[in-house]
């Protein structure tokens, strides 16, 4: 006997219907968690006050907007994701979610997050959130990613906006301090992703994505990683130098920057050693997390030093 589900499956031509878990995976939750964290720190550090409910709403909008960006990225990149070992099991290329469902989900979340941010918080934060989504989807995903090895350098701006959005949610403005938080993430992004690309370059080569190791080779990639690391390390200390933070952050940022440069030097020195690149990739995640943690700690402790 044919069941109701069998009939639905025959009509739709599908043997699987999306679950909540499938839709959740479209939001790139691991990436979203880091975005939400940096956005929340920006909100917390901003001068002024905001009602806790509005603060939660602002962070929720950042999370939904980030997830929507990831969803639209997965929709557009489904063709190459299906041919890369690292991404083949994502919801769209694996068939758990159709491209149309992913597109509709992403657009709905994008519009909802921006409109809610505008109505509940302020237009500056909403405009920055809209810019973030559009930059990630149109500039990075659709334009840069498949055309230039500088895709990560320019496209990385999308992931650097959340602290500015959080700051603007409280103040309604963009300040030097929020731009500095943006800059730290912006200069962190290239060495982070190029370290990843060093041990996944065959995937990118197979699908024709011009990541730096594919186009310019491993030697140039290692050199660029070291250059950006040397720029990032002192930049991370600037909040202390301009009086934005105290010595707790300044000392911590100095040590974290030194560790980053040492590991980048190892990547440069050890040539094709994959383990060094993996080590830098993991350290880069720890670096960004700890930089923003120490911003919080320094702010809470206040004038201890």
CA gyration radius, whole angstroms: 21 Å
Total helices: the number is 16
- CATH architectural grouping of the largest domain: Orthogonal Bundle
The helical percent reads over 70%
What fraction of residues sit in β-strands?
Answer: under 5%
SSE arrangement, N to C: HHHHHHHHHHHHHHHH
Question: Per CATH, what is the topology of the largest domain?
Answer: Tetracycline Repressor, domain 2
CATH superfamily grouping of the largest domain: UbiA prenyltransferase
Task: Determine the structural class based on helices, strands and strand pairing.
Answer: mainly alpha
Mean pLDDT: 89
N-to-C CA distance: 77 Å
* Number of E-type strands: 0
Determine the oligomeric state from the structure.
single chain
CATH class of the largest domain: Mainly Alpha
**Number of domains as seen in the coordinates:** 2
Uncertain segments are 1-13
Q: Describe the biggest sheet?
A: none
User: Which of globular, elongated, flat, extended, rod-shaped describes the shape?
Assistant: flat
Membrane topology: Multi-pass membrane protein
Enzyme class: transferase
Function: Converts heme B (protoheme IX) to heme O by substitution of the vinyl group on carbon 2 of heme B porphyrin ring with a hydroxyethyl farnesyl side group.
Subcellular location: Cell membrane
């Amino acid at each position: 006997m044919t069941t109701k589900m069998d009939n639905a499956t025959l009509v739709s031509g599908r043997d699987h219907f999306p679950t909540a878990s499938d839709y959740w995976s479209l939001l790139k939750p691991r990436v979203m968690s880091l975005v939400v964290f940096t956005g929340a720190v920006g909100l917390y550090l901003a001068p002024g006050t905001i009602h806790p409910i509005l603060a939660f709403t602002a962070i929720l909008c950042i999370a939904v907007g980030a997830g929507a960006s990831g969803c639209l990225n997965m929709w557009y990149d489904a063709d190459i994701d299906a041919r890369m070992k690292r991404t083949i099991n994502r919801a769209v290329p694996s068939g758990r979610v159709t491209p149309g469902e992913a597109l509709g989900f992403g657009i709905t979340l994008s519009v909802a997050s921006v409109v809610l941010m505008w109505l509940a918080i302020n237009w500056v934060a909403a405009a920055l959130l809209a810019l973030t989504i559009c930059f990630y989807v149109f500039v990075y995903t659709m334009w840069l990613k498949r055309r230039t090895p500088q895709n990560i350098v320019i496209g990385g701006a999308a992931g650097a906006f959340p602290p500015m959005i959080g700051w603007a949610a409280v103040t309604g403005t963009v300040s030097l301090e929020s731009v500095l938080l943006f800059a730290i993430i912006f200069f962190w992004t290239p060495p982070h992703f190029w370290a990843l690309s060093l041990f996944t370059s065959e995937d990118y080569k197979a699908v024709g994505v011009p990541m730096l190791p594919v186009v310019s080779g491993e030697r140039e990639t290692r050199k660029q990683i070291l250059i950006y690391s040397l720029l990032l390390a002192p930049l991370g200390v600037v909040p202390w130098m301009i009086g934005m933070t105290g010595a707790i952050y300044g000392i911590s940022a100095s040590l974290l920057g030194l560790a980053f440069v040492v590991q980048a030097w190892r990547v440069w020195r050890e040539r094709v050693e994959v383990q060094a690149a993996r080590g830098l990739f993991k350290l880069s995640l720890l670096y960004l997390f700890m930089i923003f943690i120490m911003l919080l700690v320094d702010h809470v402790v206040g004038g201890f030093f």
